[in-house]
Amino acid sequence: MTDYAIEARDVAVTYADGTEAVRGVDLLVDEGEFFGFLGPNGAGKTTVIKTLVTLLRPTAGSVEVNGFDAIADPHSVRATVGYMAQETSIDPELTAYENLRFACDAYGVPKADRTERIDELLELVELTDVADKVADDFSGGMKKRLDAATALVHRPQLVFLDEPTTGLDPAARNRLWEYFRRINDEGTTVFLTTQYLEEADQLCDRLSVIQRGRVVADGSPAELKRRVGGEILGVDLADPAASDRAATVARDEELFAEGATIERTESGIEVTARDARTRGTDLLVALRDAGIEVVGFDVRAPTLDDVFLAVTDERPNSVEGVGGESTAAEAVRSKPTGDGGTVDGEGAETGGTGGNR
């Protein structure tokens, strides 16, 4: 057995039609970690999860989950993991109690333990009062919580959550957050994919970002936000059509430190720089002198949204950085991998052999 809940090396998945869904993915997830896996739609997130839970066989590479070879010994892997897919798998015609009893049958939970296990899980997901009601009458949040409970009846060491809160209102989402924190605090390793970056920021110890089938960034939420390149100054213009002129003013090499990036937005421009806060007033004066009217501005720390948009190249109308320095995206993606290699602009590792950790 290893110290890793997941040890995936150079994993590739190519579908029958020739589509390369995953290319050279390395993942190392520690036991007990709350790990986030982010990426735009079609980036390969669900393909990776299905490979890790043995629903897909990789075309190349090696996968160990909870110390078991996922290719040679998939049954042992399945016995030690829980999987909550994007769509709930509960039976709407069964009660909450019956759904959990069916899951116990499917996972081979000893009969002597089932009643206690079901009662424990119903209490955990706050469905004890509706245990005898059919799931078809449940709200979306209640169905999600019941689905999560069915994935835990066999007390797995590792649980996979594939966009578990998609479509839920904020209150229902927050209740599931607390539930996921609780099972992680009790020792369960959690592997989460989500499109809600606030969710990843709140819950995850560490994150990897996948783009076009390759991992392009890795680190704790705080580390990734630091690599964006400083604070972010947003400037709203009276005439958004003047954003080109405003960007030209902001690119003045004497205004911001080297490495700053300037991007046009729908309402004006956005500057990412180490000295965005201290030089913001200078920019406003320069814009006024250039005859460009400013109607609003703010300075904020980077968020995971900024990281995500940077590393997946989805910020629109990017303007070159000051002095020809790297953009924020390049700064995040050029992080050392920990074994002497780096991640290049396409997400491929150059040099070194290790994975993301």
UniProtKB/TrEMBL annotation:
Keywords: ATP-binding, Nucleotide-binding, Transport. GO terms for molecular function: ATP binding; ATP hydrolysis activity. It comes from the Archaea. It comes from Natrinema halophilum. GO terms for biological process: daunorubicin transport; doxorubicin transport. Residues 317-357 are annotated as: Disordered. This is ABC transporter ATP-binding protein. The keyword Nucleotide-binding applies. Belongs to the ABC transporter superfamily. Drug exporter-1 (DrugE1) (TC 3.A.1.105) family. Residues 6-237 form the ABC transporter domain. It holds the Pfam family DrrA1-3_C. Residues 338-357 have a biased composition (Gly residues).
